[in-house]
């Protein structure tokens, strides 16, 4: 089974479970606070996933290891290459 | 370690995401279990907004993505017309 099929399967299963519980089709008498938490649950999971993604991106941006020496060396290499190519006749 | 603006932007994103996550979690998960007489309910909108606001934001995002794609495609078509 492909990854897409697996994800769709899982979504369909969880989605139908949530729908059945919210509509009350299973005949369970859930206590009122539980029902109040249950019905916004898909929206909550989406927002939580979005926050996790945003937070991870922010954290990785903040802790990324800059290599300043390597950056300078790369700039020098680029200058040398441009000068060399210009000498050989390539017009930029 | 990242320097200057990188660190500020990164930590800012992290802080924003944590604030949104905590507020939303309290709103959706914790409030139903707190007595309706408690003063904390004053700081939260009616429950229907907990789904309406993310839905509206999501639709706005989709709108912006669609507009951006339209803009880029129109710009490309004008460029190819000029090149012909």
Automatic annotation (TrEMBL), chain A:
Annotated Gene Ontology cellular component terms: dolichol-phosphate-mannose synthase complex; endoplasmic reticulum membrane
This protein's UniProt keywords: Endoplasmic reticulum, Membrane, Signal, Transmembrane, Transmembrane helix
Domain of life: Eukaryota
Subcellular location: Endoplasmic reticulum membrane
GO biological process: dolichol phosphate mannose biosynthetic process; GPI anchor biosynthetic process
Pathway linked to the protein: Protein modification; protein glycosylation
Annotated transmembrane regions: 43-62
Gene Ontology MF annotations: enzyme activator activity
Quaternary data: Component of the dolichol-phosphate mannose (DPM) synthase complex.
PANTHER family (alphabetical): DOLICHOL-PHOSPHATE MANNOSYLTRANSFERASE SUBUNIT 3
Family: Belongs to the DPM3 family.
Function according to Swiss-Prot or TrEMBL: Stabilizer subunit of the dolichol-phosphate mannose (DPM) synthase complex; tethers catalytic subunit to the ER.
Protein name: Dolichol-phosphate mannosyltransferase subunit 3
Automatic annotation (TrEMBL), chain B:
Pathway: Protein modification; protein glycosylation
Membrane topology: Multi-pass membrane protein
UniProt subcellular location: Endoplasmic reticulum membrane
Predominant location category: endoplasmic reticulum
Single GO term (MF): enzyme activator activity
Highest rank taxon of the organism: Eukaryota
Segments crossing the lipid bilayer: 12-34, 49-74
Record-level GO BP terms: dolichol phosphate mannose biosynthetic process; GPI anchor biosynthetic process
Key words of the record: Endoplasmic reticulum, Membrane, Transmembrane, Transmembrane helix
Keyword check for Protease: no
Gene Ontology CC: one annotated term: glycosylphosphatidylinositol-N-acetylglucosaminyltransferase (GPI-GnT) complex
Function as written in the Swiss-Prot or TrEMBL entry: Regulates the biosynthesis of dolichol phosphate-mannose. Regulatory subunit of the dolichol-phosphate mannose (DPM) synthase complex; essential for the ER localization and stable expression of DPM1. Part of the glycosylphosphatidylinositol-N-acetylglucosaminyltransferase (GPI-GnT) complex that catalyzes the transfer of N-acetylglucosamine from UDP-N-acetylglucosamine to phosphatidylinositol and participates in the first step of GPI biosynthesis. May act by regulating the GPI-GNT complex.
Database matches in PANTHER family: DOLICHOL PHOSPHATE-MANNOSE BIOSYNTHESIS REGULATORY PROTEIN
Assembly notes: Component of the dolichol-phosphate mannose (DPM) synthase complex composed of DPM1, DPM2 and DPM3; in the complex interacts directly with DPM3. Component of the glycosylphosphatidylinositol-N-acetylglucosaminyltransferase (GPI-GnT) complex composed at least by PIGA, PIGC, PIGH, PIGP, PIGQ, PIGY and DPM2. Interacts with PIGA, PIGC and PIGQ.
Assigned protein family: Belongs to the DPM2 family.
Protein name in UniProt: Dolichol phosphate-mannose biosynthesis regulatory protein
Gene: DPM2
